[in-house]
Amino acid sequence: MNYEIKIAAELNIRPEQVKATIGLLDEGGTVPFISRYRKEATGTLDEVQVAGIRDRVLQLRELDKRKEAVLKSIEEQGKLTPELKSKVQEAETMAKLEDIYLPYKPKRRTKATIAKEKGLEPLAELIFSQESIPLESEAEKFVDQEKEVSNVEEALQGARDIMAEWINEHAELRQKMRKLFLEQGVFSSKVIPGKEQEAIKYKDYFDWSEPIHSAPSHRVLAMRRGEKELFLMLDAVPEEALALAQMEKMILADEANTSVDQVKLAIKDCYKRLLKPSMETEIRLLTKKKADEEAIKVFTENLKQLLLGAPLGQKSVMAIDPGFRTGCKLVCLGPQGQFLHYEAIYPHEPQRRTAEAGMSIKGLVEKYSIQAIAIGNGTAGRETETFVKSLGLPKSVIVTMVNEAGASIYSASDVAREEFPDLDLTVRGAVSIGRRLMDPLAELVKIDPKSIGVGQYQHDVDQNALKHALDDTVMSAVNGVGVEVNTASKQLLTYVSGLGPVLAQNIIEFRNENGPFKSRSQLKKVPRLGDKAYEQAAGFLRISEAKHPLDRSAVHPERYDLVEKMAQDVNASVSDLMSSEELRSKIILKNYVSETVGLPTLQDILDELAKPGRDPRETFEVFAFEESVNSIGDLKTGMKLPGVVTNITAFGAFVDVGVHQDGLVHLSHLADRFVKDPNEIVTVNQKVMVTVMEVDIPRKRIGLSMKSDPFAERGKKMEKTQHKPKRKEEEGTMAEKLAMLKKQFGK
């Protein structure tokens, strides 16, 4: 089926763009390749748009596949009419399709099927017509001891069971009820009696309700988690009277009689026994899916920012995984991240071998020409940073904290064991911290993204959808930066467009057997790396020592002849063209437009010639926490501190101020203006200045603000309150006042 018009309307792009993109995807094109090297074909669609087309096509193809199965099932029952076939084919959503199919869907034995077996369907039809009939005498005709219908009430009950199933299978009614649940439904959460203490972390939801349509994703997922852990009871329904009124409006006849009364009873039974559980399940799945999508969006945005963190680059690094009792694990790494040396030092309590530790660090800095020292930000991190900075090392040596989230996961992984089979877990963790400073992207791809510590309820969302989104994010980051093929790990190569784990391993093995790659064309000699894989991957792979200058750039090999033609036209070599802005200024791009190459690609080529193999990431900047603040006990309300954004959620941003416990800058305190989306204001790893608003040591909670005058609003509200005459009943309890203040400051 052609999906171009539908998808084009949904994504607000042209049908021909959709058609071309679908064609490229079906030919095996990846999202990064299509968006980077096929701009003319797609009309310059970006990665987000190409991925959107890919995902929507998959959904529509799944829907078509289900339609075929439904039509086949109904046809095998001998019940397929032209009208029904048309309804199935026109269904635009899976929910609508399943509503149409419900009356024909093979069922387990229900109350209605049992009643039909007792011959009560004609009575149900008679009553459902809602005509005025002598109900008792008509029902009496169906009393049959052999069929286990003992009396009139049993006959009427069976008829109501059949009618309830008919009502439940009414497609239009289900659509209206689905809308009612979404628009008028309410999430209601209550603590399970007796579990108040165990469930204390869910205290906010002990007696909570809010409209389904406006409940934010983080609260939906939190309530569901509380329910899953058997601490909360959760409902997602509208008022029963509202639902019954809508059902009666659709089903009941205007005239009141005994038949109508029976139908009314059947409606009530249908709602409570069939429709309400079915709709609630469906709405919970829909809201879960929506919450998942929002949480995954937050996670992937955070992950991308973390992956694209500024790299220190190829420098000799000392990395320290800090600790108290077990000491600090110290490693020295070469400019390519190669492991050179390990030892443990004990500068802190209980051993406090401070002088010895200091001598070791100074000696190693000199021996290995260390240019930077990376210190993990976990336990004893700030104390270790203070100690290292007190040693009087050369000013040229950078000393900085590194987020170590996920380092322990890496150290116990197969990847780490393969890289360092002879090293202890803790030593591998230190290596990861050092390499993370040198190149965050190259190191973080070795860790399960869920363990990197930038998610929001990542273990509660649909894991397949999460993996799909995270893979897209990592692939986008890797291909956006580009990969040096001669130094890249298998994990990094795996995410290169067109490769994957098998070809990545083959590249590593070929490199080990034959030495470094000298040209991109040599990649074609790698086993199983055929023309298609080469086309998809080549532009994203760099060979810094290659003879051909374009092999060091993001210019695709398919455009080398075009660049050489440009060089010839200005009487220069390709190398000259790349090094001379004057020569590049002579190139008139429109002269090189053809059927396959347009101005967007030509402009990309010219930009790349100016900065071949450029790294799109920001330049590394040294950051330092406030030296006088090392623990949560050092914090005081009103303090202004430097911090680093570690995580962004739908309700604000978490900031590390160097006290081993991140503080929350609530959405309402991210800026002096109204903020709807935290990503408008902050990014992961961003350096910010914050003001301490609240410190709750027992619960380890820190409230922060990024407003220029965060206490101004509090002062205004207090002044307003002081001048307002109070009635006794308005004063409230101290608990109520505290609750109000917490609400004001986003806690």
Automatic annotation (TrEMBL):
- In this chain, the stretch annotated as Disordered covers 710-736
* Biological-process GO terms, alphabetical: nucleobase-containing compound metabolic process; translation
Q: Which InterPro entries match?
A: HHH_9, NA-bd_OB-fold, Ribos_protein_bS1-like, RNaseH-like_sf, RuvA_2-like, S1_domain, S1_Tex, Tex-like_central_region
- Which Gene3D superfamilies does the annotation name? Nucleic acid-binding proteins, RuvA domain 2-like, Tex N-terminal region-like, Tex RuvX-like domain-like, YqgF/RNase H-like domain
Q: Where is the S1 motif domain?
A: 638-707
Keywords of this entry: Coiled coil
Pfam families in the cross-refs: HHH_3, HHH_9, S1, Tex_central_region, Tex_N, Tex_YqgF
Q: Does the keyword Transferase apply?
A: no
Compositionally skewed regions (Basic and acidic residues) per UniProt: 710-731
Superkingdom in the source lineage: Bacteria
Q: Does the keyword Coiled coil apply?
A: yes
- Full protein name: S1 motif domain-containing protein
What organism does the record attribute this protein to?
Answer: Algoriphagus halophilus
